[in-house]
Amino acid sequence: MAERPSETDNYLEIFLRDTPMIDTRAPVEFAKGAFPGAVNLPLMTDEERARVGTCYKEQGQSAAIELGHELVQGSVKQARVEAWMDFARAHPDGYLYCFRGGLRSQICQQWLYEAGCDYPRITGGYKAMRWFLLEQMERLCASHPMVVLAGRTGVAKTDFLLRWPQSIDLEGRANHRGSAFGRRVGGQPSQIDFENSVAVDLLRCHHRRPEQPVLVEDESHLIGRCVLPMPLKEAMERAPVVVLEVSLSTRVEHTYTNYILRKLAEWQAHLGEEAGFERFAEDLRVSMGRIRKRLGGVRYDEMSRLLEQALAAHRAGNTHLHRVWIRRLLEDYYDPMYHYQLDKKSDRVRFRGDPRAVEEYLQERMGLAL
What we know:
The chain is an alpha/beta fold and 370 residues long. The protein has two domains: 7-130, Rhodanese-like domain (Oxidized Rhodanese, domain 1), CATH 3.40.250; 144-370, no CATH class. 59% of the residues lie in helices and 10% in strands. The chain is built from 17 helices and twelve strands. The chain has a five-stranded parallel beta sheet, sandwiched between helices. Strands 3-2-4 form a three-stranded parallel beta sheet, covered by helices on one side. A two-stranded parallel sheet has the order 1-5. Helix 3 packs antiparallel against helix 4 (61-71). The radius of gyration is 25 Å and the shape is globular.
C-alpha cells in the first residue's frame, strides 16, 4: 500500500473521487445518514455504544474508554480489525472516519496500525463532511445554472435525463419514481442520505463541466418521502424550463413498461414469482388508494374496477388490460394536474418539443453536451 498522510481534511477530493470510506460509527448512527462510498464497519455495536455513553455521562471519559476496551477485546476486537483490514486491502485508496474525527477513528486507526496497516482517517469526521456538503449545495444552487426538464407523466423524462452526463437523477437518488405509483422495491434512503447524494452529484457536475448548466427533472417538493433540499428547490423554481412532449399512446406504453412490467419484475426478483405478484398487485391497489380523495368516489370506484380486471387478466397471462386504466388515469387525473402545475411556471418555459427537438435545443441553446 502506497504511503499516504495519516490524516486528511480534503473533503472536496474525497467526494469528487468517490473515495471508499470506513464509517466506524455505530449502526444506528449510520442508518440516520452516511455518504456515497461509505461502508459501516463499526468500532462498537449500538448496545456497546449506549453502555459507553451512559458510563461517560456518569463517570467521565477515562471510565468510558476503559469500558469500551473491556467490551471490544479478544475475539470481538480481532473480528472487527480483520473486517477493517479486508476493506483496506480491497480499497487501498480509502479512508476511515467516525462522527467528529475523534477518539473512535483514532482507536480504529491505531488498531489497524498495530495489525500492520497504516490507514488514514478523515479529520473532522462525519460532522465536518456533512457541513461541507450542505455549504457546497447552498453555494452551487445559488451560483451554478440549472435547466428543469418538464413533461406529462409517461413522457420518459428520466430516461431522457439519464443520457446527459451533466444531470442529476433526483428520482434515482430517492429510489422512487415520483408519483403516487412510484414506490420501488428496497424502500427509500434516509433524508440525510438523499441530501448527501444529491450534494455530491451537484459537486461533481460543477467540477466536471463548470460552464454547463445541470439538467434536473421537474419534481414537487416531495419525491416519495424524500424532501427536496430548500436551496435546490429554490434554484429549480428560478431555472428555465424545457418541456418534453410525446403522444398519449407513447406515454401509455412507457407507463405500462415502467409501472407494470418493470415493477412486477422488481417485486418478483425480490420475493419470488407468486409472492412477488401478490405484492405487486397490492402495491398498485395501495397506490390507487393514495389518490382516492383527488379522484373522487365515483371515479375511484371505476379506476379500481379497471385495475382489478387488469390484475385478473394478468394472472391468466394477459397483461394488456393494464393499458386501459393507465390511459384513463393519465387523461383524467395526471394530465389536469400537470397542466395546473405547468401553468404556474409558464413564464419560465423556454422550449417545447419531442425528444429529438429538445435534445437539439439543449445542445444548441443551453450549451449542454451529450
